[in-house]
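Would you be willing to look carefully at the protein I have copied below?

:::
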Amino acid sequence: MNEGSFAAILPLIIFMVVMVGISIFVKNQHAGKNFVGSYFVGNRELGGFVLAMTTVATYSSVSSFVGGPGMAFSVGFGWIYMAVVQVTAIFLVLGIFGKRVAILARKLNAVTVVDIIRARFQSDFLAAVAAFVIVLFFCGTMTAQFVGGAKLFAAVTGYGYEVGLILFGLVVVIYTSIGGFRAVALTDTFCALIMMVGIILLLYYVLKFGGGYENIMTNLEENHPEMFEPFSMGNMPWGIYFTQWFLVGICTIALPQSVVRGISYKNTFGLHQAMLIGTIVVGFMNIGINFTGILSHGVLTGDAASYGGVDNIIPMTIATVMPTNLVGLAIIGPLAASISTISGLLIVASSSIVKDVYIHYKQKKSEVVSDKKIKILSMAITMFIGILVFVIALTPPNLIWLINMFAFGGLETAFFWTLLLGLFWKKANKTGALFSMVGGTIIYCAAQAAGFKFFNLHQITIGISVSLILFLIGTYFGKSTDEKTLKIFFP
């Protein structure tokens, strides 16, 4: 589409109005309740369906709907075989950490992941480092979501990049600031449903445009037989399989934005329900959108480079196959992925500053902070972080996919062993956690900056390995955790 059409963005405008409406409704419904518990973890009242959908929506990103299927277009089924590991992510994060985190949060009256880390290792310094790491890497991830979503909007609708950024970027900052975690959970649920509708619509029109499934697959077999090979005749080396299974599969179980969902659910039945629903939904979205990327060969005849790179495959496909009056509806799916990720990260980043740093500091000085002051500060900090990232996104950096993966790897390096060993290994201590989080993150960032790779694998393998070694060294030489703390975590 060369010129912007109001019909193309009308569904998106309606979608945004609904999102803000949900946020205002939630704010009014929970007025007068404990603000910290309500704003940051929704008073631990999430049911199974909402828990599943908010976890799925936060885990999915604009890269899942743009970069992933674009790579599938270039590589073939090997990309699906690699990416399918993500189907296990929700089941693992809720299954491994869900109940453990929920029980501890209720014992400790914790509302953030950093609260639990502070209590486990009895270290304010470690908690401060954890909060800093969260805010730092979350800002990188949110920038990638803002930029990716705005570029997708511009490519499909014909409107400018800045229009898209303002239309959905500022709205997500506003509704997150107003409604807090519960609003994020409900809007995430809405986003996840919209994502599935978008995938079904796009798949239908791609098949229709390409002359049906059999016709597209026959053409692929004749012209691109390598796309049916697991290693795509050299286009999918084993290193990509290995690293991506770590980066977007196994290690994602310790991402703070996912683990915090374990604090928010209502009961065990809801948790089990969420594990089942979340796995099915992630499987449908992951396989569905990547398979649509492969089928886009029935729509686009050139290679990815001829369309300006893999990130342009899905925008070009939407613009080519979708009727004008449905383009706005189709684009909501990928933008919903971007929006839900931003809102989830935004609320966790805000809680890291307000709850984990400011309120804790005041409590240590035996100072009472009024609910009114906390409310104003929480909304202001959420708004400030969101606007800061929005301003950065106005002059978009290049290599958005790499920025997103860099942030993923940094968070996993910092939190994987700290949470996994801290919550399930009695001997884990403060020194080990400090060495692991600080040392592992620094080494990971240094390897990224220097472009150093081990066997040409992504630097997450360096970060995770060094982080584990440092944790074990610190645990061996450090002081054991006191018995009082161990009785709480290992009764």
